[in-house]
Amino acid sequence: MKKYMKKIICVLSGGMDSTTMLYHLIEQGNEVQAISFNYGQRHKVELEKAAATCSKLKIPHKIIDISFIKELVSNSALTSDMEVPEGHYADENMKNTVVPNRNMIMASIAMGYAVNLGYDAVALGVHSGDHAIYPDCRPEFIEKLNEVAKIANYRPVEILAPFLTMDKGDIATLGKSLGVDFSLTHTCYKGQETPCGVCGACVERQEAFEKAESVDPLTS
């Protein structure tokens, strides 16, 4: 896997994908800071997990409150009282978990932060399992975002998506090899400390640990 050796802002949700990415970027020898976002999400417990991971790894971490956007992107099950859909991530009803323009908003803020700090890149934990449902996780979005990031400021910023072609099982396998503390991650879209096991995010997480021949510490 490519070694970056850069100063990188890691967009850290507190889920297993971005947490594994944080470990990966550090293991590759990069200088890393993390940024997380409170966008009014139902499962904001993930922010506590992100903070705990950064504390454990001694990584600088900021949580940015952009919860004001909740009223602007309220047609998602993650930012409203709409029922969280259950089933597999690839099911059509999972489109109800799309938060309009979420990655664009977060990436834009992270880019500004990177420029302000004199950092080289912003890393996003998107992966191939997201492609079917989330337009702003697809390769073409990352490609165009990278183009914009290089011209939006006097200092160009690179957009990194090291897991873009990997699935969640691959990420769980990598995380296992890196010693990721998955007990300090949160996945359930219903916001439960103990995974509900039936929302799309929980189902995909279960499949990932099975592929990695590992046990999820949140359910063991």
Helix content range of the residues, please? 25-40%
The main sheet comes to:
5 strands, parallel
Order of helices and strands: EHEHEHEHEHH
How large, in whole angstroms, is the Cα Rg?
16 Å
Tell me the domain tally. 1
Q: State which percent range the strand residues make up.
A: 5-15%
**Strand runs, count:** 5
The CATH superfamily is HUPs
Structure report:
- By secondary structure, the chain is α/β, with parallel strands linked by helices.
- It has one domain: Rossmann fold, CATH 3.40.50.620.
- Helices cover 34% and strands 11% of the residues.
- A 5-stranded parallel beta sheet has the order 3-2-1-4-5, with helices on both faces.
- Strand 2, helix 2 (45-57) and strand 3 form a beta-alpha-beta unit.
- It is globular.
